[in-house]
Inverse folding.
C-alpha cells in the first residue's frame, strides 16, 4: 500500500516574533474556537462513554460517513457534543509513531466557529510492521485543530487509552470505530499560550472512508 503522510497544518509564523508573512499577530488568534452551537450528545450516549462502552460504531453510519462525540470544557462548563455526520473524512498514514510501529490518523471535521477538526491516531503493537488491516489497534492520542486560527492541541497535555477497531479494509476504503478516549487542551500555535479549553474525544466511527 502506498502511504500518503499526514501533515498537521503549518503556520507561516511559529511565534509572535515571526510576523513577516502576516504583518502582525492575526486578529482573534487568542480567542478560543466557539463550539457552543453544536448539538448536545444524547444522555444515553454520554452514559455509554462514561461506562467505557462503545456508543458509536461504523454500522450506525451511512457509507462514506464519519462522526465524533467529544466533551468540551471551557469557561461555561463541561458538555458532551455530537456534531452531524460528515461525508468528507479520511484515514491517513501517520509517520509520527513510536519506533517499530505504524500509525494512522482519522480526522472528522467539526462545524464550530470557525471550522475545526477532531483527530484520533492509532498504531500497531510494538514490533509489528504491516499495512492497515482488520483488527484492534491501540490509541496513541486524540487531538483537535482549528486551522483558521492556528489553534491545536498541546502535545504535552495529550492523554489517551483504548483501541480503534478496524472492521474492514477493502478497495481503498476503511471502516471502524473508537473504543476508548483521548483528551488534551488547546493552545495557540503563534504564542504557545493555553486557551483555557479542554477536550475529550469519547466516540468516533467511520464507514467506507478513503484510506491513504
Amino acid at each position: 500500500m502506498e502511504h500518503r503522510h499526514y501533515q498537521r497544518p503549518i503556520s507561516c509564523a511559529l511565534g509572535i516574533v515571526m510576523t513577516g508573512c502576516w504583518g502582525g499577530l492575526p486578529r482573534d488568534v487568542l480567542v478560543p474556537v466557539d463550539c457552543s452551537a453544536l448539538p448536545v450528545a444524547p444522555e444515553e450516549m454520554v452514559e455509554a462513554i462514561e461506562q467505557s462502552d462503545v456508543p458509536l460504531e461504523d454500522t450506525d453510519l451511512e457509507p462514506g460517513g464519519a462522526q465524533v462525540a467529544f466533551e468540551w470544557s471551557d469557561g461555561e462548563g463541561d458538555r458532551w457534543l455530537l456534531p452531524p455526520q460528515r461525508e468528507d473524512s479520511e484515514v491517513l498514514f501517520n509517520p509520527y509513531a513510536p519506533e517499530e510501529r505504524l500509525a494512522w490518523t482519522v480526522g472528522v471535521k467539526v462545524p464550530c466557529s470557525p471550522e475545526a477538526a477532531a483527530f484520533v491516531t492509532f498504531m500497531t503493537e510494538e514490533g509489528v510492521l504491516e499495512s492497515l488491516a482488520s483488527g484492534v489497534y491501540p490509541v496513541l492520542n486524540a487531538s483537535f485543530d482549528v486551522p483558521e486560527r492556528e489553534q491545536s492541541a498541546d502535545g504535552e497535555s495529550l492523554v489517551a487509552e483504548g483501541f480503534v477497531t478496524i472492521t474492514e479494509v477493502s478497495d481503498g476504503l476503511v471502516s471502524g470505530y473508537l473504543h476508548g478516549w483521548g483528551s488534551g487542551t488547546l493552545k495557540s500555535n503563534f504564542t504557545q499560550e493555553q486557551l483555557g479549553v479542554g477536550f475529550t474525544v469519547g466516540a468516533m466511527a467511520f464507514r467506507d472512508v478513503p484510506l491513504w
Summary: The longest strand covers residues 194-210.
